[in-house]
TrEMBL record:
InterPro entries: DUF2798
Annotated keywords: Membrane, Transmembrane, Transmembrane helix
Lineage: Bacteria, Pseudomonadati, Pseudomonadota, Gammaproteobacteria, Alteromonadales
Entry annotated with the keyword Membrane: yes
Name of the protein described by the UniProt record: DUF2798 domain-containing protein
Bilayer-crossing regions: 21-48, 60-83
Superkingdom of origin organism: Bacteria
Length: 94
């Protein structure tokens, strides 16, 4: 017997096997990942510049990273529309 429900294909799943979110969530998911990566890199460089390769580096970096991310994510959500407009003013978009 066949079911009326369609089974999602592998293409509609993430690398973790969970179903992908609908496209409308891209406006939140992209800034989410961007804020994680950028705050990680910037806080890591800043922490290393401040304390060097000390024994406390990882602990200080993770603390700085979390605080940076808490600021970076909502900031990205607020400024991304402006950044898109500025980009459109300088780049010929398809």
């Amino acid at each position: 017997m066949s079911s009326s429900h369609s089974v999602p294909t592998n293409k509609s799943r993430t690398i973790f096997g969970t179903p992908k979110l609908p496209a409308k969530y891209a406006t939140v998911v992209m800034p989410f990942f961007l804020s994680i990566l950028m705050s990680c890199i910037v806080s890591g460089i800043s922490t290393f510049n401040g304390v060097g390769a000390s024994a406390q580096f990882v602990e200080l970096w993770l603390s700085a990273w979390f605080i940076s991310w808490v600021v970076a994510f909502p900031t990205l959500l607020m400024v991304l529309p402006l950044v898109r407009k500025l980009t459109a003013a300088f780049v010929q978009l398809p």
